[in-house]
Please model this.
Amino acid sequence: MPVDPLSISALCVTLIGATGRVSVLLDGFVRDVRDARTELDAVARELLSLRTVLSLVSDDCSVETTSMFPETLCQQIEGIVRNCGDVMDQMEKALKKHDGGRVQRAMWWGVTGKEDMRKLRGSLIAHNSALGIALDLMALTLSTAIKADTTEIRNDAAQIKNDTTDIKHDTAQILAEIARLQAQLPREKANALNQGSGDYSGSDTMLERYLNDMTSYAETVGVGTAEEDSVAAEGPSVAAEGPSVGAGSASIEVEADYTMAETLEGLEFCGIPHGSLWHQRSKEGLNNTLF
Model:
């Protein structure tokens, strides 16, 4: 079933609300268990960072440019957002479950709570990083689409090559970040297994799959820009032949649709005001050429 970018925006808004609820629960827990302040402050900072990323993803998915996002990318982003929601839900349930007073909270924190929150925070960091990568891919997709549109209306090969180089550089950075995050997840899994807990979140397993998919998508974008770069390197194509000059003749053929009025109007459009020195000189030059 196709994923509507607007539905991703709605999911992000819902998840932003969840971060607010968890932040309130964290504040209450720290008041009762002061030993948890350092660890839970780190969780609170990660939640704040997540809110920012979610807001940006929501904004990008609710504008007119959403039609430029391919279905594959939308599915990956939706999956990451939903998985992140699962992590938030686990965190919220854990804090609410041990809301029976200072003694109960302190006991839970000392026995398993601290380690549970450490794992959830690690998963939250991974999903936050994945959403940041998805945000970069969205920007890269828009840049590629805009470059393709502008290439159709101009023949500046040097500028096209510069644009392509920037996109290829961004793609390389995104692929490097995905690789870094992919390398981090197996370490988290190994740590969980070594500690005998076997508690490696299913959402993290899904995240690995989405990262693989994003790698494939980013590589596809990179290949596309490389092909366009080779075309641009061949030089601009000649869109139309220039005015012909007859052998031994002083007459110059001028296209009928290239009139003085249109040219002067173009000067004003480019910011050269009517009556200015440049405007007058251009008019005199056209008089000499046309007449």
